Amino acid sequence: MYKTIKSLFEYSIINLLFIFLSLLPIKIVTYLGGKIFKYLGPLSKSNKVAKLNYKRVFKDANDKEINENISKSWEHLGKTIFEISILDKILDQNNKKIRIKGIKNIESLINKEERVIFFSIHQSNWEILAPSVDGLNIKVTAIYRHINNNYIDKLILKKRKKSIKSKKSYYTPKGKKSAKEIINSLNSNTSIILLVDQKDSSGDEVMLFDNIVKTQTGFIKMARKKNLKLVPIKNTRLSNDEYEISFCTPITPYLDHNTDAEAMLVIHKIIEEWIRENPSQWFWQHRRFN
Predict the structure, then answer these.
(1) Which end of the chain, C or N, has fewer beta carbons within 10 A?
(2) In this structure, what are the phi and psi dihedrals at residue 23, rounded to the nearest 5 degrees?
(3) CA gap 254, 39 in Å, rounded
């Protein structure tokens, strides 16, 4: 009973906040989210996790560099969370908030309606990825991590669904249900998009920034079985709070007799390059390393 009341209270606060934010211009919503998280984030326990993670990746970083980048990371995270409330506005082409690059790398895939697995990481505003892929007339199933508060989870899912214009694409939560829906999607010529930088306690051990981490490899098994290309998507928040989504050259790292872990290592090298290029935009607050 207490848990239900607590969940409803939390939902009520978030829902009222989202209603308020939806009435504001995009720039104001982004600004508020960034400033609030920039000042409140460092007061949380997750700030210590973020600093330790940063130090494990950038071993020679001094305290000033760590504090500056983690502060900016909180700011980017706040912007992303607040922007969920107006996700459909951000995706509106009339606002010209999103720049798409690397279309040539997937042009043939689009023309042939070839199913692929798109992957990215928790960088910039990752919530714009699935709707942006859908906006290119690509049917896609987006895999997401379920939020513990069911009421908030449904609220955010509603915002995500509203941002997808074609209604051919959809979201599915990570888990058993997702596995079945992914198989059905691939069988119906629908592509998949997922974020591959979070810890998976049941995954394989793979090196990331010279650290052994538990990593999901289920999507690689699926790509191997179905002979699917993997398409890396680099996502960057620009200085003016616009976004640049870059479709990289499709890869097939599971070939050449590579194991799933070896194939994932190839993907980790791509991820490492993205994070090194924009360290302040990655989600450092997650307990990525064991």
Answers:
(1) N
(2) -90, -10
(3) 43
**Shortest CA distance to 110 belongs to which of 119, 118, 120?**
118
pLDDT at 166 over 90: no
Q: Which residues pair with 268 in a beta bridge?
A: none
Contact 246, 123 (CB under 8 A): no
CA distance 166 to 131: 9
For 167, the token pair is 């209604």
Hey, what are 60's tokens? 């020679």
Running DSSP on this structure, what letter comes out for residue 284? T
Identify the pLDDT of residue 276: 97
**Alpha-helical segments (H) within the chain:** 2-22, 26-40, 46-57, 63-83, 87-91, 103-111, 129-134, 150-163, 176-187, 218-226, 260-277
244: phi then psi, degrees, rounded to nearest 5: -125, 115
Residue-range domain boundaries for the chain:
2-281
Exposure string of 123-161, with b = 16+ CB inside 10 Å and e = fewer, is bbbbbbbbbbbbbbebbbbbbbeeeebebbbebbbebbe
Q: How many CA atoms lie within 13 A of 264 on its CB side?
A: 25
CB 227, CB 117: distance < 8 Å = no
- The whole-number pLDDT of residue 99 equals 95
Percentage of the chain beyond pLDDT 70 is 99
Vertex 127 angle, CA 124 and 133, to 5°: 105
